[in-house]
Amino acid sequence: MCLAVPHRIIRLLGPGEALAEVRGVRRHIRTECLPSVEEGDTVLVHAGFAIEKVLPRQEEELASLWEEIYALSEGNPS
User: Fold this and answer.
1) What CATH number corresponds to the domain at position 59?
2) 42, 35 Cβ separation under 8 angstroms
3) pTM
4) Which among 41, 75, 76, 78 has a CA at the least distance from the CA of 58?
């Protein structure tokens, strides 16, 4: 099973590379699979690669689902 976690693009660093953030943690990711990625976009990241751009209308629902996953993993069901 593959798991891709949503990250927000903070800054484009160069061809095929960006700084992204999830829950306050920033990391470098590769963006070769998404040539049209821009700062502020939300992308799904798997194994350090942005593999899909999240549409604006999907962002709120996806964020809510991930918060539920985080709460369950920390033993704090909402």
Assistant:
1) 2.30.30.140
2) no
3) 0.80
4) 41
Range of the domain at 36: 5-73
Taking the C-alpha atoms of residue 78 and residue 17, their distance in angstroms, rounded to an integer, is 35
pLDDT, tens digit (0-9, with 9 covering 90-100), for 33-54: 998 999 999 999 999 999 999 9
Task: Write the single-letter amino acid at 17.
Answer: E
CB 20 within 8 A of CB 39: no
Is residue 37, in this structure, part of any structural domain at all? yes
Q: Does residue 61 form part of some domain?
A: yes
Residue 13 belongs to a domain: yes
Give the closest residue to 35 by CA, choosing from 12, 19, 67. 12
Which structure tokens are listed for 31?
């963006």
Tell me the C-alpha distance between 18 and 60, whole Å: 22
Is 78 a domain residue? no
